[in-house]
Automatic annotation (TrEMBL):
This is P-type Zn(2+) transporter. It comes from Sulfurospirillum tamanense. NCBIfam families: ATPase-IB2_Cd, ATPase-IB_hvy, ATPase_P-type. The keyword DNA-binding does not apply. Its main location: membrane. CDD domains: HMA. It is a multi-pass membrane protein. Keywords: ATP-binding, Cell membrane, Membrane, Metal-binding, Nucleotide-binding, Phosphoprotein, Translocase, Transmembrane, Transmembrane helix. It catalyses: Zn(2+)(in) + ATP + H2O = Zn(2+)(out) + ADP + phosphate + H(+). The lineage of its organism: Bacteria, Pseudomonadati, Campylobacterota, Epsilonproteobacteria, Campylobacterales. PANTHER family: CADMIUM/ZINC-TRANSPORTING ATPASE HMA2-RELATED, CADMIUM_ZINC-TRANSPORTING ATPASE HMA4-RELATED.
Length: 694
């Protein structure tokens, strides 16, 4: 058993520092897996045994040797969403006054006659960039050569060494200002992402012997009575004992439609109690509650990286050394080989390369974009389990739908009864209802409902035959209820019903007893959703069902789906899906109840109605919290938008950097342009990434 702990990590300066710390941690014995999600500011620690304070001290120490200003807050105690405010942290500090003094000296230096101006520039540089140089030296002793601080220090000290004092100070100044705005922008994105997920309840009001006590939701045991006041978040899943109210479930489903609840209803944590005082009995521990599951899922989404993200990470590892190498060659070769080329001239050009060699624009903005896409989706009630699935969604060419409960309501109504062999309508329905009493299949529920009366509690044996129906023994009878194939399989002759509805056949003690015609209706939004998908250019839409061909065809036609495979047994659905895999990404949309294997097999498994269904959440890659099919085109559109923004950033950042490198090599672009190519580009890329959230 491994133990996982999550922390909010604050004060990390950049994404590659995060990666470095992560690597160090993973080499520490006693750690199974450590992960730092820079975009979300979350640190996940997995250890083989429970974390002891002593070991945690070691972990903290290790992190601090790398990044001294980092702090942790455990995430498993309720924390308010990210509060860190870059303004407070970076601006209103004594340090800030030193920067101001630095800028003051810097401007003064321009009016000071040489050679005294040098000292003023140097003092300004010390005040503005001293910290960066110190960090660079410290990191250098740990072997981080291509560290951003190091590159900036070399570039600016280099500028000083060739007499370009104002440039040296200015580059450092702009670098710091740029970093500040970058922090601000990253912080802003993070905050808006974390408020999206602000469904974590802070407290639960425990009701013990008529006395109330406010406790943290983690402390509440299963079966406890809790009180939820108007305006409060429901802290744990439970059953209503008293009170009626309207719940706002928008944080869970993205749907602002309020839901009325009364005594006996199940309520999910994360919804907001809008109108009445409620008493409920909890049915889960906080760790297993709906809220905890959703948060866990979203927090872990960063672990499954999209291909583009992985590409950028490995690209950055090559890009920086190559550009730095080019800078060295640029400084050394021309003065040696070209007549009249001075070292200081080419050294100046090489410095431009050093500044531009920082990959942070991409390393920070790309994960942030993916995370923004995942956050934006979750705000709409769509949980995407990782950047890789968001990317796959964008590439989806075929969508395969399960019929019952996905395209249709999954609520059947009895249409007609066709008794045979001496049975009458009442005995046919009664027998079928008795046999279906324990089945949760939508067909079974509709039969029990149509029977209306209490089906009784007599013990008997029931066997569910997936894809066929049920076989039940009670009151000395053996009853079969299911499709035509079930009766055929059991060697019973029956007259097939001509019908465009679903038909359920009944046999008692090996004798055909008649058939029931039942019908399910399409979901209201199905037609529109299919239309929207076609408008997104997804033309291959497929329906899979265990139901009869005739029924499936009629419904598919209404929806505008032309490819239908009916009468499939559960394992045949998997086979059918497998035969569709290959060309383009294939998504499967199901309700996760009896199609988990198919969900798992698809490139992207999309489960509908995920709220409250563990099976769906487990087996799928994308969970639609309510059962609105209209969320699928929304998810795909969002995936495409994310992809667009990611590539805009890649092309923009590499393009600008490339141009500056070329111009720098020819001596046209100087330090000022180089700083824009680094921090300016990073800032613009981050701001662009934050558009995903809107
Ligand atoms: N409990 C049951 N009572 C009666 N018939 C059943 C039952 N379970 C399954 N069947 C029969 O088996 C068929 C296939 O069932 P299965 O559960 O595989 O598919 P489904 O969920 O009903 O439909 P879909 O594949 O569209 O989701 C049903 O159409 C029905 O005819
Ligand atoms: Zn940088």
């Amino acid at each position: 058993m491994s133990h996982t702990r999550k922390y909010r990590i604050e004060g990390l300066s950049c994404a590659h520092c995060a990666a470095k710390v992560e690597t160090k941690l993973n080499s520490l014995s006693g750690i199974e897996h450590a992960r730092i999600d820079f975009a979300q500011g979350i640190f996940t620690l997995q250890t083989p045994s429970p974390l002891t304070p002593a070991f945690w001290g070691e972990v903290e120490h290790l992190v601090h040797t790398q990044e001294p200003s980092v702090s942790f807050k455990p995430l498993d105690t309720p924390v308010t969403p990210l509060q860190e405010s870059p303004w407070k942290e970076h601006v209103v500090t004594p340090r800030f006054l030193l920067y101001v003094l630095g800028v003051f000296l810097f401007s003064g230096a321009f009016f000071t006659p040489a050679p005294f101006d040098f000292w003023l520039f140097l003092a300004a540089y010390g005040l503005i960039g001293g910290e960066i140089v110190a960090k660079a030296v410290r990191n250098l002793t740990k072997g981080h050569v291509f560290d951003e601080n190091f590159l900036m220090s070399i570039a600016t000290i280099g500028a000083f060494s060739i007499g370009e004092y104002p440039e040296g100070v200015a580059v450092m100044l702009f670098y710091r200002v740029g970093e500040f705005f970058q922090d601000l922008a990253v912080g802003r994105s993070r905050r808006s992402i974390s408020t999206l997920m602000d469904i974590r309840p802070d407290t639960a009001t425990l009701l013990l012997d008529g006395v109330t006590k406010s406790v943290s939701p983690q402390e509440v045991l299963i079966g406890s009575k809790i009180l939820v006041r108007v305006g409060e978040k429901i802290p744990l899943d439970g059953v209503l004992l008293e009170g009626t109210s309207t719940l706002d479930t928008s944080a869970l489903t993205g749907e602002s439609l309020p839901r009325d609840v009364g005594k006996g209803d199940t309520v999910l944590s994360g919804s907001i109690n809008q109108t009445g005082l409620l008493t409920l009995q909890t049915t889960t521990l906080f760790a297993d509650s709906t809220v905890a599951k959703i948060l866990d899922l979203v927090q872990n989404a960063g672990a499954k990286k999209a291909k583009t993200e992985q590409f950028i990470t490995s690209f950055a590892k090559i890009y920086t050394p190559v550009v730095v190498g080019a800078a060295v060659l640029l400084a050394l070769l021309p003065p040696l080989l070209l007549e009249g080329a001075t070292f200081s001239e080419w050294f100046g050009r090489a410095l431009v390369f050093l500044v531009v060699s920082c990959p942070c624009a991409l390393v920070v903005s790309i994960p942030l974009s993916f995370f923004g896409g995942i956050g934006g989706a979750s705000k709409r009630g769509i949980l995407v389990k990782g950047g890789n699935f968001l990317e796959a969604l964008k590439n989806v060419e075929t969508i395969v739908f399960d019929k019952t409960g996905t395209l249709t309501e999954g609520v059947f109504r009895l249409q007609s009864l066709h008794p045979a062999n001496g049975f009458d309508e009442a005995s046919l329905l009664g027998t079928a209802a008795q046999a279906e009493r324990h089945s949760t299949h939508p067909i079974a529920r509709s039969i029990v409902q149509a029977f209306g009366a209490d089906v009784g509690q007599e013990k008997g044996e029931v066997e569910e035959l997936a894809g066929f129906g049920v076989k039940a023994r009670f009151e000395g009878k053996e009853v079969l209820v299911g499709n035509y194939a079930l009766l055929e399989k059991e060697g019973i002759t029956a007259s097939p019903q001509e019908s465009e509805q679903s038909v359920v056949y009944v046999a008692v003690n090996g004798v055909y007893a008649g058939a029931l015609c039942i019908a399910d209706t399409l979901k209201r939004e199905s037609i529109e959703a299919i239309q929207a998908l076609k408008e997104l250019g997804i033309t291959r839409l497929v329906m899979l069902t265990g139901d009869r061909e005739e029924v499936a065809r009629v419904q598919a036609q209404k929806l505008g789906i032309t490819e239908v495979y009916a009468g499939l047994l559960p394992h045949q659905k998997v086979e059918k899906l497998e035969s569709l895999l290959g060309q383009g990404k294939v998504a499967f949309v199901g309700d996760g109840i009896n199609d988990a294997p198919v969900l798992a097999r698809a490139d992207v498994g999309i489960a509908m109605g995920g709220v409250g269904s563990d099976a769906a959440i487990e087996a799928s890659d994308v969970v639609i919290m309510d059962d609105n099919l209209g969320k699928i085109p929304i998810a795909i559109a969002l995936a495409r938008k994310t992809h667009r923004i990611v590539w805009q950033n890649i092309v923009f950042a590499l393009g600008v950097k490339g141009v500056i490198l070329v111009l720098g090599a020819f001596g046209i672009a100087g330090m000022w342009e180089a700083v824009f190519g680094d921090v300016g580009v990073a800032l613009i890329a981050i701001l662009n990434a934050s558009r995903v959230l809107r």
